[in-house]
Amino acid sequence: MDINKKFGGSAHDVFEEQFKNDTVGLVSIEDFKRKRQRIDEFVEAEAAKKLAREEDERRQREVDRVKRQRIETNKLSFAQDDEEQEEVVIPFKKKISKDPNVDTDFLPDAAREERERLERELLIQEYKEEQERVKNEMVEVTYSYWDGSGHRRSILVKKGTTIGHFLEACRRMLEKEFPELRTTTSEQLMYVKEDLIIPHSFSFYDLIINKARGKSGPLFHFDVHEDIRLQHNAKVEKDESHAGKIVERKWFDRNKHIFPASRWEVYDPNKTFDSYTIRGGEVTKKR
Questions:
Q1: Alpha helices in 88-235, H assignment, sequence order
Q2: How confident is the model over 5-56, as pLDDT tens digits?
Q3: What is the pLDDT of residue 280?
Q4: Where does the chain have alpha helices with state H?
Q5: Residue 276 to residue 240: CA distance in whole angstroms
Q6: How many Å is the maximal CA-CA distance in the chain?
Q7: How far apart are the first and last CA of the chain?
Q8: Statement: residue 246 has pLDDT above 80
């Protein structure tokens, strides 16, 4: 039975649905190789069926052509009786096989191209699924509401949460204790991590996947810790992480000429820092 007719869709759609059901989470390299082998066998079988159908259709067209030619000839010559039957000789197209000793990878190969297309789509789908899995993981973010002094809190969010949504969740958590935040929107708040102002459109996942770095520490750690390894060895990069600050924009506008706000700048993923610094002094050079 034709697999397209059986399942009501393309063979590729059927395979994709079956593969999704077979692969939940990460698979081992052995499982991946077996699945890839099934892809090869599937594509080759479908290609063989397609070639057979095309050959049958070609031969049927040739039969029809010969019949039409015979009928036209009989009409013109009047030499044949309409009831006489003639054997129709169908020319057979000889199959030309490839020389196994000749490299033909540069030649068009429909089966190979279809197999490569399926493999690319499979890898892309696996990458997207892994991204979604990581984005849905929870992460604890330690932050400090900063109004001239720090008020440290923590919150659990998904790694895929944007900074804008994170600020709104924190505002709702803080407004009971800090009444001034009841009339403030998340657009009027800033998240400052390692002396960099993180735009609202970035997510924690973006910072993690890109191993983003700030002026005074990594942007992809959201807890608070000090690195006590080899404190006096300047060749080893320190791994300290500081609580990000949540600040009202109007507070920043009033105090941006005073430390610590004087050190803050907007995060630019294309900008790198050669060393981590605090209060203008060098902490450690990065390797």
A1: 110-135, 163-174, 204-209
A2: 444 455 656 666 666 666 555 556 676 677 767 776 776 777 778 888 888 8
A3: 43
A4: 3-7, 11-22, 29-77, 110-135, 163-174, 204-209, 249-255
A5: 10
A6: 112
A7: 62
A8: yes
Measured in degrees and rounded to the nearest 5, phi and psi for residue 96 equal -100, 120
For residues 211 and 220, the answer to whether their CB atoms sit within 8 Å is: yes
Calculate the alpha carbon distances from 42 to 37, 54, 55, 71, 251 in Å: 8, 18, 20, 44, 64
Do 272 and 287 touch, CB atoms closer than 8 A? no
* Tokens encoding 229: 């390894």
Is 70 exceeded by the pLDDT of residue 256? yes
**Planar angle of CA 273, 266, 164, nearest 5 degrees:** 125
Q: What is the DSSP string of 239-276?
A: --B-PEEEEEHHHHHHHTTSTTGGG-EE--TT---SEE
Joined tokens for residue 45? 């079988």
Q: What is the mean pLDDT of the chain?
A: 76
Across the range 118-129, mean pLDDT stands at 88
Determine contact, residues 7/14, Cβ cutoff 8 Å: yes
Residue 8, by phi and psi: left (phi above 0), alpha (psi -120 to 50) or beta? left
CA–CA distances in Å: residue 38 to residues 13, 110, 189, 210, 259: 15, 18, 53, 35, 62
- pLDDT single digits (tens) 131-177: 899 899 999 999 999 988 889 999 999 999 999 999 999 999 999 99
| Residues 284, 275 contacting (CB under 8 angstroms) | yes
Rounded distance between C-alpha atoms, residue 93 and residue 192, angstroms = 74
Q: What is the pLDDT of residue 85?
A: 53
Q: Which two tokens stand for residue 184?
A: 């403030």
107-114 long-range contacts, CB within 8 A, separation 24+: 110/47, 111/43, 111/44, 111/47, 114/43, 114/46, 114/47
